[in-house]
TrEMBL record:
The lineage of its organism: Bacteria, Bacillati, Actinomycetota, Actinomycetes, Sporichthyales. It comes from Sporichthya brevicatena. It holds the Pfam family DUF3046. This is DUF3046 domain-containing protein. InterPro entries: DUF3046 (IPR021408).
């Protein structure tokens, strides 16, 4: 994990979120022991009824997946 960079359009600008940054954020919010389990087992409506891992495996932008996780977890804007 962590060597890929996925370009994402956000608010009209091209931004990037490395896969390693995505997983760092997941571990920060959910804990090192639970982040991978959450990604594997939790279906998120904002990802089209897929899990985080299914969305990533399908090539979904990491920033799009992160935003869906933030919405599902109801994270405050300061932690998104």
């Amino acid at each position: 994990m962590g060597r890929f960079v996925v370009p994402v359009r956000a608010a009209g600008t091209l931004t990037r979120m490395r896969l390693s940054d995505f997983w760092d954020r997941m571990r920060t919010e959910l804990g090192a022991g639970y982040a991978e389990s959450y990604a594997r087992d939790t279906v998120i409506a904002g990802l089209g009824g897929r899990t985080v891992q299914q969305a990533l495996d399908a090539g979904e932008d990491t920033k799009t997946v992160w935003r869906a996780v933030c919405a599902a977890l109801e994270l405050p804007p300061s932690r998104r």
